[in-house]
Design goal:
Elements: E1 4-9, E2 13-18, E3 21-26, H1 29-41, E4 49-53, E5 56-60, E6 65-66, H2 78-93, H3 104-120, H4 126-136, E7 146-148, E8 157-160, E9 163-167, E10 174-176, H5 178-186, H6 193-200, H7 206-226, H8 237-243
Antiparallel strand pairs: 1-2, 2-3, 3-5, 4-5, 6-8, 7-10, 8-9
């Protein structure tokens, strides 16, 4: 072992890596409850749970490397992205987890609240907020619940060559909108959507995925800023929002 690596750390949780073991510490034990249960149910490769002693959860590292990083081009092959799409489809087709997910009303209220905060704090130009909120409304429609990961960032999907070797960080898993997972995975990597959908299947709604890019970026900014992250870094959430102004 070369030492302890701090993977992520903020006031709500911290993840440390020691060799091939990840140690997750969370102030809310319900997050670990969901993570352990979801990994046991998910029909895709997941990390092995080594032990749990609240508030800590130890899981094994998965082989391979992340599909990419937000803010940088993904070097993964089109086939690897297609494999990720196929894995996500298996998840979405699986039986629903027995706990509730966010409702349409929850999402709409969050969008109202976070857009008000963005305006009040002049974080972005008003036109950027207005245009993206207009696009985001497309996602605010009734959806058929699917088993979703709920935080399917590009760094949470691991591949080795053209195969998916593991999907990590399941604490937000719940019944929800399948298009949300597809949007989060391609956030900032919009050019890889076609590759992802090659594996996922032809029935994905591209307009809704595009709407979730805007909705997620609008609603995440406040939390990211408060916890020391920079949504204005190149290729990240604010660039996603600004890109919508350049579209017809």
């Amino acid at each position: 072992m070369d030492g302890v690596e701090v993977v992520v750390a903020h006031s709500q949780r911290a993840t440390l890596r020691v060799g091939e073991v990840f140690l997750k510490v969370d102030v809310d034990p319900a997050h670990a409850d969901v993570e352990v249960a979801a990994m046991a149910m998910a029909p895709v490769p997941t990390p092995a749970v080594l032990w749990r002693e609240p508030p800590a959860l130890a899981i094994a590292a998965v082989p391979g490397k992340a599909l990419g990083v937000l803010g940088e081009p993904s070097t993964a092959s089109p086939a690897a992205w297609a494999a990720a799409g196929a894995a996500v489809r298996r998840l979405h087709d699986a039986p629903l987890p027995p706990w509730p997910g966010r409702t349409l009303e929850d999402v709409a209220a969050e969008l109202d609240r976070e857009c008000a905060w963005l305006h009040a704090n002049a974080v972005l130009p008003a036109e950027v907020i207005r245009r993206n909120r207009e696009i985001a409304q497309i996602a605010l429609r009734p959806w058929k619940p699917a088993f979703i990961h709920g935080d399917l960032q590009i760094t949470h999907v691991f591949v080795d060559g053209d195969e998916v070797t593991g999907v990590i960080d399941w604490s937000e898993a719940a019944p929800g909108d399948a298009m949300f997972d597809l949007a989060i995975l391609t956030l900032g990597h919009e050019e890889r959507l076609d590759d992802l959908l090659t594996g996922y299947g032809p029935d994905a709604d591209r307009d809704v995925i595009r709407a979730w890019w805007s909705l997620r970026s609008l609603t995440a900014a406040h939390w990211l800023i408060e916890h020391g992250f920079d949504p204005d870094a190149p290729g990240c959430e604010f660039d996603v929002l600004r890109a919508r102004l350049r579209e017809p």
